[in-house]
Amino acid sequence: MKKLAIVGASGHGKVVAELAELLGYKVIFFDDSYPEQQQIEHWPVVGVFEDLLCNQKQYPEAIVAIGHNGIRSQMSEQLEQKNFTLPTLVHPTAYVSKHTIISKGTVVLAKAVVNAFSQIGRNCIINTGVIVEHDCKLGDSVHLSPSVSLAGGTKVGDASWLGISSVTKQLIDIGAHTIIGANSTVLQNMPSNVTAFGSPAVIKKYH
Both 74 and 149 in a single domain? Predict the structure, then answer.
């Protein structure tokens, strides 16, 4: 059985681990809580992140299951520099168009829909029940929380995070490193490095 090393022994890690099992992987966790934490549910935690970086031959496939976009991006880059393979994991109940591009290190979770001619960058989280409509473009390390809906042609920049059940109208551009709050409705373009929320969403903070 092929092995998958998962970085991040917490809630999101458990969801990714279950998905990996469904896809035929044996799961092993690495987390900086080791050795205090040596198990998460029925999965073993066998070392810290630095231990994984030194064991590419033993664990050639690895993925970072941490919700924080910056940390996930940084750790994924370190794994790539050490020649790990970062797989793309798609839940069996998700629908992904054959005309879509999904890059390495990205997870597409249960009941998500990624429609035709969309492009998803590296190390993204497409969470439970997300809808990414046609012609959307997501940068690297984007996090779409459960039940987010992106209307056709939406663009989301690198490392942006959309909160649970937030939605966009068609052809919206959201910049990089921007946070959209839960249950927000994005009706106008959003620049990079802001926090916005509400219905309609308005900018509340500049980072």
Answer: no
Per DSSP, the three-state class of 119 is strand
pLDDT value of position 193: 98
Active-site residue numbers?
A: 134
Domain count for the chain? 2
DSSP state of 136: -
The residue out of 19, 49, 81 marking a domain boundary is 81
Give strand ranges (E) for 57-178: 62-64, 89-90, 95-96, 101-102, 107-108, 113-114, 119-120, 125-126, 131-132, 137-138, 143-144, 149-150, 155-156, 161-162, 167-168, 173-174
Residue 171 in tokens: 């052809």
Query: Is the pTM higher than 0.90?
Result: yes
Q: What is the pLDDT of residue 1?
A: 83
Beta-ladder partners of 5: 28, 62
pLDDT at 153: 98
Low-confidence residues of the chain, pLDDT below 50? none
Nearest in space to 139 (alpha carbons), one of 69, 67, 206, 65: 69
